[in-house]
Amino acid sequence: MSQSSPSVRAPAVAGMFYPRESRELAQALTGLLGAAAHDAPERGVPKAIIAPHAGYIYSGPIAASVYTLLAPGRRSITRVVLLGPTHRVAVRGLALPGCSAFATPLGTVEIDADAVGQLRGMPQVVVSAQAHALEHSLEVHVPFLQTALEKFKLVPLAVGHCGAEEVAAVLDTLWGGPETLIVVSSDLSHYLSYADAQALDRATAKAILGLAADISHEQACGATPVMGLTCVARRRGMKPELIDLRNSGDTAGDRNRVVGYGSFAFYEAASDAS
């Protein structure tokens, strides 16, 4: 894994997937999280979450439903390992951006240099600024994290062509303790009718809750990092929970061709998530 000079990864989809202006963005996130918190029962702090990555008007409420569960860990979570699929640039393995920080309209988040050092030497981990430059699957989560958490460092990994076990090995390396949160970015079905999407997404949610190892990219665009997480969750005896399951026809789109969204929380065996 080659070194890269310090730099800041600029936001690529501000003004498209979420508001460009900082005050408007902060207000949007406060509204989304506030609405979700109103319905959230008491739970422990998840160790890992799965959340969608579409434009906020489409998937924001579903993402907020799981991000609001981080409230009790607002100060204790200080490192976030964020994994999402590549949409624009093909890459082999899991790609780090080779920069020192990620920027959003809400400010910059420092890349965790110590964590990057831990990954050095793992053959499936590469550096690709190109894979990150225009990628939205990671970026859209950073403002949610900046709002839900007080101060944290980021380990952003764009997941390309690799196996679930390769992802799992990276997660195991960076697992840490209560200070580390794992976030997997994935939408579910794409461009089906409303009824067909509901049926497929229910099956996908059942597979995720069963910690399945055979989730397809037709079921979830982030299938590889999702299965990396389910692989680790099986070995560690984690308890997954479905938090929200909807699609763009439920939020801001028509029902002829919809995209599915699900949010899930994963709790470590020792935690009380009841």
Whole-number mean pLDDT: 94
CATH class, anyone? Alpha Beta
Number-wise, the strands total: 12
Radius of gyration over C-alpha positions, nearest whole angstrom: 17 Å
From the 3D structure, determine the CATH topology: Protocatechuate 4,5-dioxygenase, Chain B
Features:
274 residues; alpha/beta; Protocatechuate 4,5-dioxygenase, Chain B; 9-stranded mixed beta sheet; 3-stranded mixed beta sheet; 10 helices; 12 strands; disordered N terminus
Tell me the layout of helices and strands.
Layout: E1 8-9, H1 22-39, E2 48-51, H2 56-67, E3 79-85, E4 94-96, E5 101-104, E6 107-110, H3 113-119, E7 125-127, H4 129-133, H5 136-139, H6 141-148, E8 153-159, H7 164-174, E9 180-185, E10 190-192, H8 194-209, H9 223-236, E11 239-247, H10 248-251, E12 258-267
Parallel strand pairs: 1-5, 2-9, 3-8, 3-9, 4-7
Antiparallel strand pairs: 2-12, 4-8, 5-6, 10-12, 11-12
Helix pairs in contact: 1-2, 1-6, 7-9
